[in-house]
Amino acid sequence: AQTVTQSQPEMSVQEAETVTLSCTYDTSESNYYLFWYKQPPSRQMILVIRQEAYKQQNATENRFSVNFQKAAKSFSLKISDSQLGDTAMYFCAFFLYSGGGADGLTFGKGTHLIIQP
Amino acid sequence: ETGVTQSPTHLIKTRGQQVTLRCSSQSGHNTVSWYQQALGQGPQFIFQYYREEENGRGNFPPRFSGLQFPNYSSELNVNALELDDSALYLCASSFGRGYTFGSGTRLTVV
Question: Is the pLDDT of residue B97 over 70?
Answer without folding.
Answer: no
